Each structure stands twice: as structure tokens, then as C-alpha cells.
Amino acid sequence: MKSKLEATEFRNKIKSNTVIGNPKLKYISPFWLFRIFEGISKPFYGNFDDSTFRLTINTAILPTFYTIKGNYKTANRTLNISYTIEPTHKLSIIWIKYFPIIAFVLANSVLISQEKIPLQVYLFFNLFIVFSTFYTKWRTKQEMKNLERKFNEIFEIII
């Protein structure tokens, strides 16, 4: 993909819009919770150099599931940017896929093992699991779209 910016403008924009740090280690650090008090001054969190970048959305509370990883170079006076959106941690995507099934089986096995549980309790737990599953999948897809939209908008990428 191409950008309307030149390479130096791109580097300056990436520098001014990014909090430096490793996206994979953002929530693993025992001190990540203290970042809530720092505020969100820049839209991206990650690292970059003269030809590559690895960025995620800069958020203080919610974990991020996706990272933009790519490189950029100038050819024929145009800036060519190639990037992919990939999961920050593969385990988190696996967790999102399979946890609802595990929760459904566990909740129903506990409820079945109890005697005289009303039907409303079964219905409540199962509906809660179903709605939370759909919400989580919707939220992760929206996060991926939001990350790409912000990236394309800030760095003026022509698709």
C-alpha cells in the first residue's frame, strides 16, 4: 500500500503518535495497572525503527488482541507500506474461541449435579454465556477494524 507521506514525515508521525514499548509485554508487566493514571496521550503503543514497526492501540484498561506489524520503504518517490494485522498473543485468541464452550459445559454440569434447580437459572446462565460469547467475538473484530482504520487514517495510507 502507498502513503501520501514521505518517509521522513512518516517517521515523524509514527514517533509523535506512539508510546515506545513492546506490545507483547504491555499487560504482562506487574506495573501495567499504574498506566491507568498516566492517561492516553498517543493513539499507538509499540516500537519501530527506520524500516519496520510493530504497533497496537494504546489503551490503559482493556487488553489489546491485535498488533499491526509491517515495514516501509521509499521506491520511485512514493512510500510503500506493507503490514499485517496479527494477534498479539495467540493464546488470547484461542481463549476467546474455546472458553465459551468450556464455560457452557462446566456451568451446565454444575447445575445438573444440583437438585431442584429452577429452569430460570439454567436459562439465565446459558443466555449469559451465549451473549457474552457473541459480544466478545464482536468486540475483537471491532478492535481489529478500529486498529486498521486508525493506522490508515493517521498515516494517510491509500488502499
Q: Estimate the strand proportion.
A: 15-25%
Largest beta sheet: what is the strand line-up?
2-3-4-5-6-1-7
Tell me the major beta sheet.
Answer: 7 strands, mixed
Class inferred from helices and paired strands: alpha+beta
Assign an overall shape: elongated
Low-confidence segments, given as residue ranges, are none
Put simply, the count of helices is 3
Distance between the amino and carboxyl termini: 6 Å
Element pattern in H and E: EHEEEEEHHE
| Cα Rg | 21 Å
Q: Please state the average pLDDT score.
A: 85
State the helicity in percent bands.
40-55%
Write the layout of secondary structure elements.
Elements: E1 2-3, H1 7-16, E2 18-20, E3 44-48, E4 52-57, E5 66-75, E6 78-87, H2 90-113, H3 119-154, E7 157-158
Parallel strand pairs: 2-3
Antiparallel strand pairs: 1-6, 1-7, 3-4, 4-5, 5-6
Helix pairs in contact: 2-3
Compact description:
By secondary structure, the protein is α+β, with helices and mostly antiparallel strands. Helices cover 44% and strands 24% of the residues. Strand 3 (44-48) and strand 4 form a beta hairpin.
